[in-house]
Amino acid sequence: MTAAHARAAGDWRGQELGTRAVSYDERDAILYALAVGATPQELDLVFEERLRVLPTFALTLAQWAPDALGSQAAFDVRTAVHGSQRLEVLAPLPRAGRLELTARVGDVWDKGTAAVFEVVVESEAFVATWSLFAPGCGGFGGERGPSSPGRPDTPAGLRTEVVTAANQAALYRLLGDRHHMHIDPDAAQAAGQPRPFLHGLCTLAATTLELARSLGTHPADLVELDGRFSAPVFPGDRLGVTAWPDGRTASFEVTDGERPVVSGGRVRFR
To answer: What are phi and psi of 161, to 5 degrees?
Structure first.
């Protein structure tokens, strides 16, 4: 990335990425639930006659927006990574329907050697924000942005685990994120990983599902979700989840052994 491109990174702030109408049906919502770890016994997630749509399904509907920014050459799509994700739920998703989504670039933070682009997608049902870490795009004189949230300094009140499936990345990519690095070994190695790895949004959604179970609430009652991706997860990994609950709100982190894979997590249920 040239110095000219680095200086231009801040100019993307506020850039409109367009409006798109997206449609889905009950089959899509059920496939999503299965892809992030719902069981056949959770009938209100996998049976159309009782279906409640997982709010994180919205993130698959909005995946076109960060892809649209990458296609406009704001950064090098071969090296940029998904840094963090936020989701604010405004209304329940219907079992099937059509949503109009509007996307724009929010803040662009200058990390020195890299930039962080925020892509904001808004609809009547949710607001979702992607943070994309783009090496080589920093140094344009902008603000560094907020620091990563720290780990709570009190003892954890909840420990559980998420067991990923060997075919989970292959299944999840059918929901829309078909980047080759999640299925093709050569593409994964080109991205610096030894083998295809799981989508960060799949890890985050699977963790949210397990936290809802552990907190005794329904995952469709999700109101807010935030998490920062620290390291890749590989299909078949067994992940530890540590949480600090406060009623139906919890801070959390996810680890693969001693290695953090999701940090600064926060979830709130209705």
So the answer is: -145, 155
Domain boundaries, the chain: 3-135, 158-269
Q: Are 127 and 119 in contact (CB under 8 A)?
A: no
Please choose, from the candidates 233, 82, 87, 244, the residue with its C-alpha nearest in 3D space to the C-alpha of residue 151: 244
Q: Cite the beta strand spans of 27-170 per DSSP E.
A: 81-89, 97-110, 114-122, 126-135, 158-163
DSSP-based three-state secondary structure for 225: strand
Q: Is the overall model pTM greater than 0.90, yes or no?
A: yes
User: So what's the architecture of 3-135 in CATH?
Assistant: Roll (3.10)
Q: For domain 158-269, give the fold.
A: Thiol Ester Dehydrase; Chain A (3.10.129)
Residue 228, H or E segment: strand 222-229
User: Which residues are tagged catalytic?
Assistant: 177, 182
Query: Any residues with CB less than 8 A from the CB of 195 and at least 6 apart, and which?
Result: 185, 188, 189, 234
Tell me what percent of the residues of the chain surpass a pLDDT of 90. 90
Report pLDDT digits (tens) over 105-138. 999 999 999 999 999 999 999 999 999 999 999 9
| Same CATH fold assignment for domains 3-135 and 158-269 | yes
Report the largest interatomic distance among the alpha carbons of the chain, rounded to a whole angstrom: 56
- The 10s digit of each residue's pLDDT in 57-67 is 999 999 999 99
